[in-house]
Amino acid sequence: MKPRYLYPSDYYADPSANVFNGKLFVYPSHDWEAGAAFDDDGGHFQMKDYHVISMEDVENGEVTDYGKILDVEQVAWAEKQMWDNDVVEKDGKYFLIFSAKDYNGVFHLGVAVADKPEGPFIPQEQPMRGSYSIDPCVFKDDDGQIYCYFGGLWGGQLQWYKSPKQLLKEGIDLGPAADKKTQLFAPADVPALPSSVVRLSDDVMQFAEAPHDVIVLDKDGQPLKAGDPHRFFEASWMHKYNGKYYFSYSTGDSHFLCYAIGDNPYGPFTYQGIILDPVVGWTTHHSIVEYKGEWFLFYHDCVPSNDITHLRSLKVQRLFYNEDGTIQKVVNE
Ligand code: FUB
């Protein structure tokens, strides 16, 4: 299969692909030209609503856009920047978990509920208690437990939640870089800031526990370092293949999609390699899903818009595994 653009007539990004009722649904962010100035915190990503698209034949089939499923105006606690989202089903209800900024400029995760995968979704009045940062991926394990992987650096604010004091307790001394802002530029040889994972409550409305770090180890069993171009930055995704847990993510400023394998949803995960080399556009973001016996990688790039960062278009192509369970690198032609 050649890589296929999905819906290039509107700018969608950050695809979260899920199979519900025999159809493949993709929940993206909805990019548009808001005229906001570019900055390193992603201030130009001013998304204000979500759509959902579906298809029954990924390679050639028609793509249905169901229109708007949630608007920031409907969400009491959120002011702006509806970034990545994902949907999970439980007991016939569909829970859209999304990231947006509150009226103090702080990212949280919110929940909106629907009776159908195509919505409409009704938001909760408040964000999830204790939630922070961006890019939720909701993963339902075979035992029915639901986990949310989340977090993103720089504009995603994840670094705000790891204080230098806490890091010092973990044996990481940032030295002169020890304040919230400059922690981003931590010495290359300290462990990289990890993504977070949390089990969700039975009603899928709240965190059921304090979030855990998602540790990615190198082949020697050491956490990937801040200076490693393959370390976590944002865009977590979790899928299961042959009983193993595959944690995949974007490396942000080095622009790769990478993955690591573990034995349980919390990890640790052992780094395996690159899934996708940098695409056109600063960001790279993906999801991996099995549909009708084939595996697919959904991602985005900026080729149709020719924009440098934020007017992105969805793309999909097949994903293949080697016999040992490693993923074959995808070529983005
Ligand atoms: O879409 C806004 C942000 O760009 C996402 O949250 C990141 O993952 C990156 O794709």
Describe what this molecule looks like in 3D.
- The protein is mostly beta strands and 333 residues long.
- It has a single domain (4-319), classed as Tachylectin-2, Chain A (5 Propeller), CATH 2.115.10.
- The protein has 1 helix and 22 strands.
- It has one helix at 164-169, and strands at residues 4-6, 12-20, 23-30, 49-55, 64-71, 78-80, 85-90, 93-102, 107-114, 122-123, 137-140, 146-150, 195-199, 212-214, 216-217, 234-241, 244-250, 257-262, 269-276, 287-291, 294-301, 313-318.
- The strands form 5 sheets. Strands 6, 7, 8, 9 and 10 form a 5-stranded antiparallel beta sheet that branches. Strands 15-19-18-17-16 form a 5-stranded mixed beta sheet, with no helix packed on it. The chain has a 4-stranded antiparallel beta sheet with strand order 1-22-21-20, with no helix packed on it.
- A hairpin with a 7-residue loop joins strand 9 (107-114) and strand 10.
- The longest helix is centred in the middle third of the chain and has 6 residues, at 164-169.
- The protein starts with a strand and ends in a 15-residue tail after the last strand.
- The record marks 135 as: Important for catalytic activity, responsible for pKa modulation of the active site Glu and correct orientation of both the proton donor and substrate.
